[in-house]
Structures are given as C-alpha cells and as structure tokens.
Design a protein that fits this description.
By secondary structure, the chain is an alpha/beta fold. It has 5 helices and 4 strands; from the N terminus they run E-H-E-H-E-H-H-E-H. It has a 4-stranded parallel beta sheet with strand order 1-2-3-4. Helix 4 packs parallel to helix 5. It is globular, with a radius of gyration of 13 Å. The mean pLDDT is 95.
C-alpha cells in the first residue's frame, strides 16, 4: 500500500503508472473523483478523517462519515474503508469499534 499525505487529487492519474496494490487517501480527496480515476484499476483505502468525528465525535458521527464514504465509492468493490492517515492514540475505543463495524 502506498500513502501520500494531503490532497493527492492531482496525482491520482500518476498513481496508475506505479500501480500499487492499494492507494491510501486522506479525506481531502473527493472519493468519487478517486473512483472515476482509480476504480477497477487500483484498490483504494481510507477517506475517513482521523481528526474529525473519529477523534472527537461520537460513534454515531463516525458511522455517518463511514457511510458517506461507502456511498461515495459505491458498490463496485476495490475500496477499503479506513482512516485516511495515522490517528491519535486518544481516539475513543467506541469510535474505533464504530468504524470497524462496517464490513462486507
């Protein structure tokens, strides 16, 4: 897996040239745009903000953000729902469990 911090929208087409097994995105990248460019070619992971609801919200807010990521990607497969970067050791366990509750 390759991860590049920040808004990597402008390099998504370049990612196709290196063809990693998976490319990790921060929430700064529009997931629909990433799907249009990488979908079916490179697995994509991430997009849940590690500093938003995941860190300081409640489990319901985490589930809402996770659901929005899944809806943005759609049912095409090739997407791993996870946080878009490293996260603080202060993330509440309940929020981690809320994110992990999404699985297919």
């Amino acid at each position: 897996m390759v991860h590049i911090c920040g808004n990597t929208t402008q390099v998504l087409k370049d990612v196709l040239e290196i063809r990693p097994h998976c490319f990790s995105l921060e929430n700064k990248v529009d997931l629909k745009s990433a799907r249009e460019i990488l979908g079916g070619k490179v697995c994509v992971a991430g997009n849940v903000s590690p500093t938003g609801a995941f860190l300081s919200g409640n489990p319901e807010q985490v589930r809402e953000e996770a659901q929005a990521c899944l809806a943005a990607w759609g049912d095409d497969g090739g997407y791993i729902l996870t946080v878009g970067c490293d996260f603080s050791k202060n993330v509440p366990l309940e929020n981690m469990k809320a994110l992990m509750s999404f699985r297919k």
